Amino acid sequence: MRVRLKGTNSRTKVLKDGSTVTYWYAWKGGPRLRGEPGDPEFLASYHEAISQKKSPPAGVLLSILQGYQASTKFDDLADRTKSDYVKIIKTIELEFGDFPLVALADRGARGLFMEWRDKLAKRSRRQADYAWVVLGAILSWALDRGLVAANPCQRGGRLYRGSRRDKIWTLNDEIAFLDKAPQHLHLALQLALWTGQRQGDLLSLPWSAYDGKMIRLQQSKTGARVAIPVGSPLKAALDTTKKCSTLILVTKSGTPWTEDGFRSSWRKACKTAGIVGVTFNDLRGTAVTRLALAECTEAEMATITGHTLRDVRSILAPTTSTATPLWRRRRLRSSKRERKLPTGLPTVPECSV
Fold this sequence. Notes:
Layout: E1 9-14, E2 20-25, H1 40-52, H2 61-69, H3 72-75, H4 79-96, H5 109-121, H6 125-144, H7 171-180, H8 186-195, H9 199-203, E3 214-218, E4 225-229, H10 232-239, H11 259-273, H12 283-293, H13 298-305, H14 309-316, H15 326-334
Antiparallel strand pairs: 1-2, 3-4
Helix pairs in contact: 2-4, 4-6, 5-6, 7-11, 8-10, 8-12, 12-13, 12-15, 13-14
């Protein structure tokens, strides 16, 4: 009988040949274990890792970082968010693991943390902002529990000021993808374009969420329940797709996607199609233009995609000296160039299962 060892964590990876392998770790962010669950080697490596795991000394920031990761607050995060947080926490541990908790209330602490953020910003301003937010959230959790006397990372503004308008898939990008990418990825493009949802939510979206007119789902990251009107191109794609699974998006063989497998396939497809400078995540911004075509209000678009009203207005704003926004010019051209706006066809081929 196999016994699940406390705290062990697994990650499934898709290899270059398309096969999958599962790696096991002693705990989230911990050392990788040897062997397979149930093997003597696996058990030995687990006990070896546990014996080397030291309790952090009291009174330093490392104790707060580890305490947060063991809390229900951390457990309630989405799996992808947890993974992103762990990467940032490791960076914080290297820089401030031995930082005295009593020094958090010192007037100079905020300046010290801002210097650290500025150093990270030399590589990526967006990642520097994210690291600041993560550290601030952890210290806020500790402050609420009386573990620290102050949170010097509250607020602080943003270093990254990119325009959402610069991260929009163009019409040529969409046409190139549909022309060059494998057919089993076409429906993923259409779903992302017309719903504005995150990759993880789309990969787990069941057919039961679609009633012919609307798609209803609960977003895993925010917990928000949204109802999305289905535009005619997406409806045509969904209605002509053979149902191979309870999930809408599946692999070529009709099996559910893993997140790593989908990301790998998507990157390869974009490379083949010559699409650069935009990612799958940028389809959320592009979806704002589609929801405008579906006559959603700005507030509805923001609710559906998770953007701020400011971002929505930036995306819909004129991109030339004319007063006609890009999305509206697309609508005006659609009657003249029906072929140019992808219709969602061809759809996913029949399953080979």
